[in-house]
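Risk mitigation, structural track. In case the binding assays with S-adenosylmethionine fail to produce interpretable data, a predicted complex structure has been prepared as a fallback.
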Amino acid sequence: MHAAARQNRAPIRPNVPDGRGEKGQPLNEQTLSERLERVAAHVPAGARLADIGSDHGYLLVALMTRDLITAGVAGEVAVTPFQAAQRTVRENRLSERISVRRANGLAAIEPEDGITAISLCGMGGETIRDILDRDKARLSGKERLILQPNGGEQPLRQWLMDNGYRILAEELLRENRFDYEIIVAELGEPVRYTAHELYFGPLLLQARSEAFLAKWQRRLRLKQRTLSQLTEARQAVSEEKLHALKQQISWISELLT
Ligand code: SAM
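Fallback model:
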């Protein structure tokens, strides 16, 4: 990537679990990050929850310890986080109620699990989309999806719309200088979202919260800087990329006026 573009990108979110909260306290199965607390708030009481990409398993263990879910499946593709989830579940004496499975995406779920909610958090939106798309057949269609993409929200919303999901709730929060979006969806009456809604989030766009406007103000500054540096450097950028960047700048500017 060109240096100018790299310098002006939004900060890269850590691809590891957040080790400390906003106030510096250690995060674990008792003290979730604000991000995971907000995800937890969207899990229906009494759910049978599959947390795919569970890493340490904090979300499931916290919810089970608080008696908010009745069964859990932790799905992890990588060995170290899989073992971490096993340890968290074992140390909390929850092995009878939470199954920890080493599996790729939705392959962690079996029909007899009777899963009613699936969380996919802390991964890129495209990765979440690909996980859902690859094993659509494993979805009963009755599950609530609670998604917390790290970027790539637009293609994820596009997938939801194309596959008959309706967005029930959206949240935006800022923690440790990162903006996080949470998207909650269920299969429902077909709905068509506009290109703007897919980009900004239909419900976030409607609510226009302060956090939402502040996020897009920051994004606008970054994108404008990227555009001017690319133009000045006469960097070879595809017409398509340049057009997309200009269009985003124009949409965000309109949003903020
Ligand atoms: N969900 C936790 C959270 O939000 O704090 C952990 C996020 S961590 C950054 C992403 C986790 O997803 C990693 O542990 C990674 O191994 C796992 N992961 C990535 N792709 C996966 C896949 N296809 N199936 C299962 N787990 C996956």
